[in-house]
Fold this sequence. Notes:
The protein has helices spanning 102-113, 125-139, 146-163, 172-177, 179-188, 195-201, 206-217, 221-239, 244-250, 256-267, 271-284, and strands spanning 19-26, 31-36, 41-55, 58-63, 67-70, 76-92, 121-122. With 287 residues, it is an alpha+beta fold. The chain folds into two domains: 19-163, Jelly Rolls (Sandwich); 172-284, Arc Repressor Mutant, subunit A. Strands 1, 2, 3, 4, 5, 6 and 7 form a seven-stranded antiparallel sheet that branches.
Amino acid sequence: MQLNSKKELTPVVFGETSVKILKTKLGPHIRAFEQHWHDRLELHLIKSGSLELCCNDEKVFVNANELSIVSPTMLHSGKSGSEGYECYVIMFEVADLYNGTVSAKQYIEPIINGKIRFKYKTDNSEIVTLANQIVEMQQNSKNYHPLETVGRLYRLLGLLCEHCIDDTHSSPQLFESFDNVINYINLNFTKNISSASISRQFGYDESYFCRKFKKATGITVTNYIRTQRLEHARRLLEKTEESVRHIAISCGFIDAAYFTNCFKTAYNISPTKYRNNYIKQKNKEPY
């Protein structure tokens, strides 16, 4: 399933091994990354401290010697814990590992399409050790053949599928049946829609619809609609001079006060301050 908001647009440049490693170190309670999603698989190997990771509607703390797992197309954000954190971010495109084998079609294709979701973190010693090996191989790439690293990526996917599949959020049939619902929301989120009106539109009982939507997508209907509205509003704050009130109403919020509260909760900044900061940053950019 492709979420049509907050997709990370900055391309990641991979080398011969289709994997990229970034070392990150932050002090206490610092926003590491705003809510977004991307097509790649992303892992955070925590070396010290902790990362507060928010995936869809759930928050988890990933501690030292643990590994976070951000599945493709999953909305996520993160900030450092009370002691800060130091970690290695391991990124790779699962699609680069797809081939014509039966196992690739059975496991890799569903990961790419979001039909297989992984648990948000693991402390499995074999997986954590393998992640450390991949980091070491990338940092000392002259000592390893690129195919050795690619082999480790296949091994990593195999272990994730063996130990870390999240059965509550992995369901091909549910995924496929909700594609039309997602498309409907993506086209109509600025209108007065809700879980009640959408369930009527598609002939579902509302409580059943809400349960199945959460299971299929990992996020509630209400939060998905709000996320779409907030991202659209953020773009309008950047690209237009319309008032906050006008933007709030045009994006489907009931009033400016409620919109401001939702925006501050999502981005830790008011709409007005966000716009001012964006303008200042834009004016600093060289022509």
